[in-house]
Design a protein that fits this description.
The structure holds two protein chains of two kinds. Chain A is an alpha/beta fold. Chain A has one domain: TIM Barrel (Alpha-Beta Barrel), CATH 3.20.20.140. Chain A contains 17 helices and nine strands. Chain A has helices at 27-30, 32-40, 61-66, 71-83, 109-112, 125-137, 158-175, 194-204, 229-238, 261-282, 285-288, 303-317, 329-333, 348-357, 360-363, 379-382, 389-403, and strands at residues 14-15, 49-54, 141-145, 183-188, 210-216, 242-245, 294-297, 337-339, 364-365. Chain A has an eight-stranded parallel sheet with strand order 2-3-4-5-6-7-8-9. Chain A is globular, with a radius of gyration of 22 Å. The termini of chain A are far apart. Chain B is mostly beta strands. In chain B, the strands form four sheets. Chain B has a three-stranded antiparallel sheet with strand order 1-11-10, with no helix packed on it. Chain B has a three-stranded antiparallel sheet with strand order 2-3-4, with no helix packed on it. Chain B has a three-stranded antiparallel sheet with strand order 5-6-7, with no helix packed on it. Chain B is globular. Chain B starts with 6 loop residues before the first strand and ends with a strand. At the A-B interface, strand 1 and helix 2 of A face strand 1, strand 2 and strand 11 of B. Strand 1 of chain A pairs antiparallel with strand 2 of chain B.
């Protein structure tokens, strides 16, 4: 800026380098205010583990398709990318139209794209972006998930789901995971096919950085079906946690009545996990697999006290419907793990009660969900007035350190 | 950051056009200065929600919904008499005139006194 006057010795204003944040803005600039939180809350003194963040696998879609094992499926996908103008980064995915509503029509640019400049080196671009985000927020380690791959649970073609899940997992564990020890993964299970899930656990379960496995929660199946039990047994025996990662759907019987994305996102990111948790508890899976650690990801926390009270209330009147239970549903839920984001904070006394209900000091795992539109910075936890210092440390990373043996 | 109540020269008047903004750094502070309907408004670049860089967000008229006499919705519209700044972190919107979120007035930006003299724009920090 040309104007550099001073007044009474006060330093002059300098034009800020970035006037408006766009999809091309460097994520270190986008997150500059989070960097200030590091100093404010002494976050450098914490071991912060972010249990839910994302990279953009569509940017590497051609490479992932190249990893498809089946030659016909690989051919079909690659041909699709050649002949359909918009399929280059979409072929074989189940990318729903609703996901493009997430950035509130340009208002939240980082949701739509991290299109910033990254110098071309031998390092994959996604690693650079992940490191920029971690360093800006004071995060030591990050569990990194894909994005549209999380929609595969509603894909109409199971064979493609299985093939694409293997392709993505292989690409990720070869290209991203070995290059950065700070990056961890709860790999997707191809839940359409129990045999393929078993193969996935066997192939990837011992790869460094794979800290467990994940079921994408948007799917219309009962997780209590007998065909899935060997998956849970295998994970339990290996000591690997099982996560359920929530997602949106604008296509179920409830959300098809809705006209606004805020309605769809508010409900469907929670109801998918409510459904699976209900089946999990009522069918006694915590009794069948008592050592299997279960994590519920990206549904926030406000739903949990509801589930505890509702299931307890009904169970006591209908014990014969759930004969495997030896305790109240709420007691099983209290043994589960939850990620924190998106933390519902508008009614503080309810938030505090929720933390007590979920036993946050030992069961809650900080998550950012960066770069999504509703991400939470670590200060979300560090700034809570009702938490003890030890509780903050546990939620921000120490509980994750134990759970994932980091 | 300069000591409290000190006035700092920012820029010439034409650097903040009607309907536009200028984001400046003064010491450790980052300030957004906006001009709307001829008046200047200035706020710290800190969102009331999670501390995001609100002044670097989208400027857009407030969205309204038209309801007819029968109570039926006639769709969205822009209210061009109300300009919003949208925090790029999470989408919190604030009325430029008041610095308040239209749905929760307690969520408000930190206002910075701003004035305009013959030689340009000043803020008081």
């Amino acid at each position: 800026m040309a104007d550099t006057k001073t007044l009474n010795g006060v330093s002059a204003a300098r034009e800020h380098a970035v006037q408006q944040i766009t999809t091309r803005t460097d994520s270190r600039e986008i997150l500059a205010n989070a960097r200030r939180d590091i100093e404010r809350y002494h976050l450098d003194d914490y071991f912060i583990v972010d249990v839910d963040a994302h990279h953009v696998e569509f940017d590497s879609w051609a490479d992932i398709l190249d990893t498809l094992e089946n030659p016909v499926l690989r051919y079909n996908a690659k041909e699709m990318t050649k002949h359909w103008p918009n399929a280059k980064n979409l072929a074989f995915s189940n990318h729903p139209v609703g996901l493009t509503f997430q950035d509130v029509f340009g208002r939240i640019p980082h949701q739509a794209e991290l299109g910033e400049y990254v110098e071309k080196t031998d390092e994959h671009r996604d690693l650079t972006l992940v490191r920029r985000a971690m360093d800006s927020m004071g995060i030591k380690m990050q569990v990194v998930f894909p994005q549209p791959m999380l929609e595969m649970g509603l894909h109409p073609e199971p064979d493609i789901v299985v093939a694409m899940t293997f392709a993505y997992n292989r690409w990720f564990t070869r290209t991203i995971l070995p290059r950065e020890k700070r990056v961890k993964s709860l790999l997707c299970l191809p839940f359409h096919d129990p045999d393929a899930c078993m193969k996935t656990i066997q192939e990837f379960g011992e790869i460094p950085g794979v800290v467990g496995f994940m079921i994408t929660s948007q799917r219309h199946v009962g997780v209590h079906k007998n065909m899935y039990m060997r998956i849970y047994r295998e994970l339990e025996e290996r000591g690997l946690p099982l996560a359920f990662h929530a997602g949106p759907s604008w296509g179920d019987t409830m959300t098809t009545t809705m006209n606004r994305f805020v309605s769809v996102h508010s409900m469907s990111f929670v109801t998918c996990n409510m459904t699976h948790m209900t089946n999990w508890i009522i069918n006694g899976l915590p009794e069948r697999f008592p050592k299997l650690k279960v994590i519920w990801i990206e549904s926030g926390l406000a739903w949990v006290p509801f589930m505890m009270q509702r299931l307890d209330h009904e169970y006591l009147m209908r014990q014969s419907d759930a004969p495997l239970l030896k305790r109240l549903p709420s007691e099983y839920i209290a043994d589960m793990y939850f990620t924190s984001q998106p933390l519902e904070v508008t009614i503080p006394h309810m938030l505090e009660a929720t933390f007590k209900a979920v036993r946050a000091e030992t069961q809650l795992l900080y998550s950012s969900d960066w770069p999504h539109w509703d991400f939470d910075v670590p200060a979300r936890i560090a700034g809570l007035p009702f938490l003890t210092e030890q509780a903050k440390r546990n939620i921000l990373g120490e509980t994750a350190r134990k759970l994932f043996r980091l | 950051m300069p000591a409290a109540t000190q006035k700092a020269y920012v820029c010439a008047s034409d650097r903040v056009p009607e309907g536009g903004r200028l984001v400046v750094d003064i010491g450790d502070a980052t300030i957004g200065i906006f001009r709307f309907e001829g008046n200047l408004y200035a706020y710290h670049n800190i969102c009331a929600h999670q501390g995001g860089p609100v002044c670097q967000g989208t400027l857009i008229p407030r969205v309204t919904e038209k309801i007819d006499a029968g109570g039926e919705s006639q769709g969205f519209d822009f209210d061009r008499s109300s300009l919003h700044i949208v925090c790029p972190w999470h989408g919190f919107e604030y009325d430029i005139k008041t610095g308040e979120h239209p749905g929760r007035r307690a969520a408000r930006l930190i206002r910075v006194p701003v004035e305009e003299n013959h030689d340009g724009i000043y803020v008081t920090l």
